[in-house]
């Protein structure tokens, strides 16, 4: 995973160089992922550790161009994340614009706290959603979110 929305060279390539021999030896399938931090209304651990400024939630064009650049650099997946415990989830408008601009699968995380938001994210173009805190607080929510995601009409 490469933090393509950040400007810290250690997370763009430095740590990848250090870990490459270990990852290669593991035999795991490598799926290069462009990771984008989107402002979720609260400071996140990722932003703190990486010293990355999140992409503003209302700057769709920056998100689109960042995702396109990641794909052009060979990333096989694009992961947009508002962060664990985000106060505001990524907007459907941003998801839709990014999804329409790339062919790589789009993963969305952060601030997805109910089945409706999961449904709307998938309808907007998310191929995968990541839900953490909401399920930690209410484990039974996973069934409702799964049902909502699976009710989204399949894209032609």
Model description:
It is a single chain. 33% of the residues are buried. The protein has one domain: TIM Barrel. The protein contains 7 helices and 5 strands; from the N terminus they run βαβααβαβαβαα. The protein has a 5-stranded parallel β-sheet. The longest helix is centred in the N-terminal third of the chain and has 18 residues, at 9-26. The protein is an alpha/beta fold and 156 residues long. It has helices spanning 9-26, 45-50, 60-72, 92-101, 115-124, 133-137, 141-150, and strands at residues 2-3, 33-37, 77-81, 106-109, 128-130. Helix content is 46%, strand content 12%. The mean pLDDT is 93.
Question: Would you kindly provide a brief summary of this structure?
Answer:
The chain has helices at about 10-25, 45-50, 60-70, 90-100, 115-125, 135, 140-150; strands spanning about 1-5, 35, 75-80, 105-110, 130.
């Amino acid at each position: 995973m490469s933090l393509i929305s950040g400007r810290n060279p250690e997370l763009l390539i430095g740590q990848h160089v250090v870990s490459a021999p270990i990852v290669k030896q593991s035999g795991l399938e490598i799926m290069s992922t462009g990771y984008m931090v989107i402002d979720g209304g609260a400071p996140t651990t990722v932003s703190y550790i990486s010293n990355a400024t999140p992409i503003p939630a209302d700057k769709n064009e920056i998100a689109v161009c960042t995702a396109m650049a990641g794909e052009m650099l060979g990333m096989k997946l694009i992961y947009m994340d508002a962060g664990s415990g985000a106060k505001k989830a990524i907007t459907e408008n941003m998801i839709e614009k990014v999804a329409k601009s790339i062919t790589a699968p789009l993963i969305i995380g952060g601030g997805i706290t109910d089945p409706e938001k999961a449904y709307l994210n998938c309808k907007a173009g998310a191929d995968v959603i990541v839900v953490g805190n909401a399920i930690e607080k209410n484990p039974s929510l996973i069934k409702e979110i799964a049902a909502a995601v699976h009710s989204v009409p399949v894209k032609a």
